[in-house]
TrEMBL record, chains A, B, C, D, E, F, G, H, I, J, K, L, M, N:
This is ATP synthase subunit c. The record marks 56 as: Reversibly protonated during proton transport. One of its GO terms (molecular function) is lipid binding. The chain crosses the membrane at residues 6-26, 47-73.
């Protein structure tokens, strides 16, 4: 059933929707925070990087599962 | 089942919905932040670029999986 | 199964929904920012263009996948 | 399967939902911005036009794919 | 399969949901803006007309596709 | 398949959901605006009428398509 | 297929959901506006009536289509 | 197909969901308005009654269609 | 098809979801209004009762239809 | 078809979701109102009880229908 | 059809979703209210208990129906 | 039908989604309340514990039903 | 039916969505609270830990059920 | 049924959507908090790390279940 495998891979990579919205929210407030307190930009960028890396990780989990589905279940 | 493969590829590229909304939110607050603190525009643009690049990446994961589905599972 | 291919292409191009909403949010706050700080309009427009271009890109991914589905999977 | 092709075309043109909401949000804040700073109306209108054109483009992608589905997959 | 064609046409014209909500949001803020700055009503009405015309266009795309589906795919 | 035709007509007229919510939002803010600036009621009513007419139009598109589906596809 | 006709009529009359919410939003703000500016109640009631009539119209479209489906497609 | 007729009647009466939420929103703001301006309670109650009656009407449309489905399509 | 009749009755009574949320919103603001203006509690309670009765009515429509479905379509 | 009867009973009792959220919203604002005006706690509690009883009733309608479905349609 | 019975029981107990969110909202505002007016904590706790008990009851309805489905319809 | 039993158990345990969000909302406001009034932390923690315990209970109902489904309906 | 078992396990572990959002909301307000009242960080962290542990528990219920489904129903 | 196994794995890894949004919300407020109180950045970062680790854990549960589904149920 190759067709349903494609559907499964498509569903898996949709995990990135959450990361895309989450990173956008984080970036929006971080740029607002830099405007309010420019001298704290180093600390804000560190927090932003930490959060974005962890959020991006959830998108990568989805990507990895999608690739696994295509390679292993074909 | 070529039809379900097309559905799978269509689902996969939908990952870009999150990135589209996320980048929009990030840009909206960044332009507001530049208006509030124009001299911090360099730092704000850096944070915006970082966030948008990571969010765009989630859309690209979806695009790559959609292309993989079309090429490998056909 | 030509019918499901059409459904797949229709799903793929729906990626533009996120970009449409995202660009609208970004534009709304950018025009507000220009009203608040008209002399920063150059920098605001640059940030707006950057964000809109990246968001538009996610819509184009969906468009490209929809065209690929129609051409390659027919 | 002509019926599913019609469903696919109907799904594709739904991309305009995002553009419709997005343009509405952008216009709402732009008219508010003009009321707050009437002398900046030229710059606000430029930003509004840029954003609306890009958002409208996502609706046009959906329209084009819907026409392609009706013409090519019939 | 005449039935699914009817479903497709019904889906296509649903594009107007976005335009309906979007035009409502735009009008709501425009009337608020006129109340705040009555002498700018000309400029506000121009922006409102521009946005509503573009949003209405997305509804018309859906209408056109629905008519095409009924006429061409019957 | 008369049953699916009925479902299609039912879907088509659902377009009015967007118009119903949109007109409600527009009216709510317009009545607030009249309370804030009663002497601008003429201009506010014009903007409200323009927006409501365009939003109502999207509901009418759905109504027309629903009637077309019932008459032509029966 | 009498069953699906019933489902179609049920879907059609659901158009009233939008009108129900929209009229509620309009009434809520209108009563707030009357409390803020009691002497403008005539003008506010006119705007409220205009908006509610147009929103109610969308519910009536759905009702008419539902009756048409029951009478003509039975 | 008696079963699907029951589903159709169940869907039709769901129209009341919008009216239920809409009446709740209208009542919430009306009671707030009475607290703010107790001497305007007559006018507020009139607006509330007008809105609630129109919203209730949408629920009654759904009820009527549900009864029609049960009686006429059985 | 007794099973689908049960599903239809279950759907019909779901109409109460809107009433449940609507009554909750109305009560929340009414208790806030009583706290702000305790001497207007009589008028607030009347408005609350009016709104809750009308919202409850939508839930009762759903209940009646559910009972009708169980009794008449069994 | 015992299975679908179970699904119908499960759907029916879901009516409690609206009551659960509505009672939560009402309680949240009522406790806030008591904190703001402790001497009005009697009147606030009466309004809260009235609203919660009516919202709870919608959940009980769902419960009754679910029991009826299990007993009468088995 | 044991499988669908399991699905029905699973649906029924989902009623707890509304109670979970509602109790969370009520608790959040109650703890805020205690912080604002610590000497009114007794009255706030009574209102919170009343609301939570009624919301919890909706979750228990779902639990009871789920147990009934498993025991009686097996 | 072991497969649908697994789906039913999966649905049942999803009840925890409401509890997860509800506990998060309650905790967020409680920590804000402690920051505003640190000396009332004992009372705030009691209210938080009460609410979280009741919300957690809804998740446990779902867990219990899921276990019952796996053990009794297998 | 091994396939539906996989779907059931996938549904079960989705319970973590609520916990993920809830913990994020709780953490966001807790970090805001620490910034407002740094000397209360011990008490805030205790409340945060309590809430996060209970929310995490709902995710673990889903994980346990998913593992049970894979092991016992295979 | 390899296809449904792929769908199940795709569903399971979607758990990361909640974590992605949650981490984004937490990071957004944490960077705002650092801007408001830069000297408390150590404590804010600790709370952020605690919350993000727990939220990330829910995404990892989904990832683990997805891998288990692919390996054990194939």
């Amino acid at each position: 059933m190759t067709g349903l495998i494609a559907v499964g891979a498509g569903l898996a990579v949709l995990t990135g929707v959450g990361a895309g919205i989450g990173i956008g929210i984080a970036t929006s407030k971080a740029s607002e925070a830099i405007a309010r307190q420019p001298e704290a930009k180093g600390d804000i960028n560190k927090a932003l990087l930490l959060g974005c890396a962890l959020a991006e990780a959830t998108a990568i989990y989805g990507f990895v599962i999608a690739v696994l589905i295509i390679l292993f279940l074909k």
